Amino acid sequence: MERFKGTAAVICEFNPFHHGHGYLLSEAKKKYDTVFGIMSGNLIQRGGNACAEKYSRAAAAVECGFDGVLELPFPFSGLSARDFARAGVHIAEETGMEALVFGAEDPEGVYAAAPIVCDQGFEERVNQYIKEKKRVSYPKAVENILAENLGGEKAASLCHPNNILALEYIKAISKRNILSCHVIRRSEMFYSAGSIRALGVPDVKLPTEARPFFEKTLPDGAILPFASLAAKLYTGDKAVLYGIDESLAGRITKACRVAGSAAELMDKCRSANDTDARIRRGLISILFGITKYQAAEMPSYTLLLAAGRDGMGIIKEMGKSSGIRFEVKPASLAGEKQFESALRAERVLRELYGSPDPLCRTPYIQGALK
């Protein structure tokens, strides 16, 4: 398949688009002429809804310099770091990108750990460790195995969220070695997306060009009351759903009997071995019926969410040569199995965002007359 020379992808959420994203873009542009975002839709990786709907976040990105934004669709946008990275890398590969650019707090540590996590026996080592130690989460098992090779301090630093994702991107890339990867050190000069959301997405923390697209935002957990109600109504086997093992399934069932709110349900589901993000992902899986089998697939399509002026030429060529369905209009995907599953989620989120019918959307085109 054709590779577009000088083209890089950034797997992202832009939740919201902030100055740190602008810095990552400026660093990427030093090496690559064209940079695209592969962005989560309306449901995000740590389990929940984005602060603004996907077309607004994509529009902010192109107004701030990205050449285009493609969708990483649900359920892949809401999976654990390993599966989220695998799906994003697949879209980058199949749309013809040359490279993947991503940030990390410790690029040197990431490069040092890369041969370890990319070893063919690494996943088996992790699974065996979990089996032997019991009550050890996947992230903790990875940390302990890395500590055996790199020392405890370095392994602990690599378990920061962006370092974890960086390693998962490298692992996913190593499966086919189609993409080159470029790790950029994250700068501490900028507010993180999480801290900005905690402050209420204040304008002063966002680039000027991005601010109009985040005038109306949602709190992180706006979707959780829907998920909590779904958990209370669900009568099937929760353990067949993505992100839920027998232990978590049991805790959710018990919590549903007594919890009077989504927050209380979350509190009663907590354990030493499950992060809040994993519990939220489990509840989202219940809400939308996402099975382990669905999550094990690769994305079969991507939607163009926004296009910058300079990206239009490559976008047209991508549409012709993409190894997965590359669509501009959601309605073109009607009947596609993965899309129909995602559409159910889009329609629930529409209730929160107050956005138009998801089948009637079109990409944001920079400079187009409104």
Task: Explain this structure.
The chain is an alpha/beta fold and 370 residues long. It has 3 domains: 7-105 and 162-219 and 297-365, Rossmann fold (3-Layer(aba) Sandwich), CATH 3.40.50.620; 109-159, no CATH class; 224-293, no CATH class. It contains 16 helices and 10 strands. The protein has helices at residues 19-29, 54-63, 81-94, 107-117, 122-133, 138-150, 152-157, 161-174, 193-198, 224-233, 246-258, 262-269, 276-288, 292-296, 312-321, 337-353; strands at 7-12, 34-40, 43-44, 48-49, 68-72, 99-104, 180-185, 301-307, 325-327, 364-365. The strands form 2 sheets. Strands 1, 2, 5, 6, 7, 8, 9 and 10 form an 8-stranded mixed β-sheet that branches. Strands 3-4 form a two-stranded antiparallel sheet. Helix 10 (224-233) crosses helix 13 (276-288). The longest helix has 17 residues, at 337-353. The mean pLDDT is 94.
Brief write-up:
The protein is 47% helix and 12% strand. The protein has 16 helices and ten strands.
Question: Keywords, please?
Answer:
370 residues, alpha/beta, Rossmann fold, 3 domains, eight-stranded mixed beta sheet, two-stranded antiparallel sheet, 12% strand, globular
Portion of residues in helices?
Answer: 40-55%
Mean pLDDT score: 94
Order of helices and strands: EHEEEHEHEHHHHHEHHHHHHEHEHE
Structural class: alpha/beta
Provide the low-confidence segments as ranges. none
The helix count comes to: 16
Name the shape in a single word: globular
**Strand content bin:** 5-15%
* The CATH C-level class name of the largest domain: Alpha Beta
In terms of topology, how is this protein built?
Elements: E1 7-12, H1 19-29, E2 34-40, E3 43-44, E4 48-49, H2 54-63, E5 68-72, H3 81-94, E6 99-104, H4 107-117, H5 122-133, H6 138-150, H7 152-157, H8 161-174, E7 180-185, H9 193-198, H10 224-233, H11 246-258, H12 262-269, H13 276-288, H14 292-296, E8 301-307, H15 312-321, E9 325-327, H16 337-353, E10 364-365
Parallel strand pairs: 1-2, 1-6, 2-5, 6-7, 8-9, 8-10
Antiparallel strand pairs: 3-4, 5-8
